[in-house]
Amino acid sequence: MVNPAEIPTASVRDLPKDGLTLLDVRESDEWAAGHAPEAVHIPLGDLPARVDELAEFPDDRPVYVVCRTGGRSARAAAWLNASGWDAVNVAGGMKSWHTEGRDVVGDGPGEPEIL
Question: Is the entire prediction scored with pTM above 0.90?
Answer without folding.
Answer: yes
